Amino acid sequence: MDVRKTRWVALLAALALGIIFAGAALGAEKLLVCGPCSRSFLPVAEKAVADLGLSGKVQVAKTSCLGDCAGAPVLEFRGQVYSRMTEGKLKDLLRKAKL
């Protein structure tokens, strides 16, 4: 196989893998953590999701300001903003969501 074909095959394989991995998260619900005031809560949220075995069902992401800096940590889930979040409160919220 010549070099151009090898590069083309490698590019297609990488693209296919990207589509597969992106597709896994397409059906996931978004758990948005306020970036400006709550970015330190991001690893806590990721751990809570992993502890509950919801990594394929809930995607944790940082977002722009959610407008409640005084109540940090702040996150948004299913269109609802939650403030003064803790790991325990988040786990309760996710359990009640019945994912």
Task: Walk me through this protein's architecture.
This protein is of the alpha+beta class. The protein is 48% helix and 18% strand. The protein has four helices and four strands, in the order αβααβββα. A four-stranded mixed beta sheet has the order 2-1-3-4. A hairpin with a 2-residue loop joins β3 (75-77) and β4. α3 packs across α4 (87-96). It is extended and about 60 Å long. The N and C termini lie far apart (48 Å).
How large a portion of the residues is in β-strands, by DSSP E?
15-25%
- Overall shape: it is extended
SS field, number of helical segments: 4
Using only CA atoms, what is the Rg?
Answer: 18 Å
Which structural category fits the helices and strands?
Answer: alpha+beta
Number of strand elements: 4
Whole-number mean pLDDT: 84
Helix content: 40-55%
Low-confidence stretches: 16-24
